Amino acid sequence: MGYYDQHLHTQFSPDSAESFENYLEQTDDLIVTTEHLDFHDAYNGGVDTVLDYAAYSDKIDALNRIHGGRIRRGIEVGYTPEAHTQIVSYLEGKTFDVILLSVHQNGHFDYLQPIIDEMDPKAVMREYFGLCTKAVRKLDGANIFAHFDYGIRRLSVTLDDLREFEPQLKELLNAILAKEMALELNTRSMYEYQNADLYRYLIGLYLEMGGTRFSLGSDAHSIHKYRYHFDDAIALLREFGVTGLTQFKNRVAYIEPI
Ligand SMILES: [Zn+2]
Ligand SMILES: [Zn+2]
Question: 42, 76, 90, 136: which could join 110 in a potential S-S bond, CB 3.0 to 4.6 Å?
């Protein structure tokens, strides 16, 4: 079995209309979907975006009976300190193969909303990386830290800008290491939002600090972005001497060679 795309959305996420069936047609191998959980979802008018776990599980069970158990279940937890208790109680007693941890918003607005354009970019970066570190420290049990650059996707951040935040990024990476989580290479961030150079820098920093766990995810919301630019991301990892990706089954990590 090869490595697979570890960050995908279907119609079980409000911002995707894609079906499991269409993803299954893309491959004979495993797939996993990682659906949104965002309480007080700023991107969605402030309503709670809550994965319908029963419907999601039923759908996967039914398809797994036909497709030889090829679907794994995942969730992308959008963390805010305000929603901590709701997140923990939602996750309790539910079964996932992989839990992604993300920061999408600061409790007032999502970092992809236009208000970001009017703000001081450095202030946005400071706030965002701070929230990311807090999320990793506070939430136990997550497996992968997703798209470290989500909060700066709307900004034109140069490598020099990012280097200014090296102490904060090290704090974030330290927290990720302490929780034995994997670091996601989000290929839409890298090749659609043009942040590959920022990822290159972060990968170097993470390896220097002893990091070994990498996850590859397109963050596709439709089949058109499935395994988006995976060859480029794999080539980048190989440049750094990385030989495997970290994947999760029943939230237990294992390495898949690249
Ligand atoms: Zn996300
Ligand atoms: Zn996502």
Answer: 42
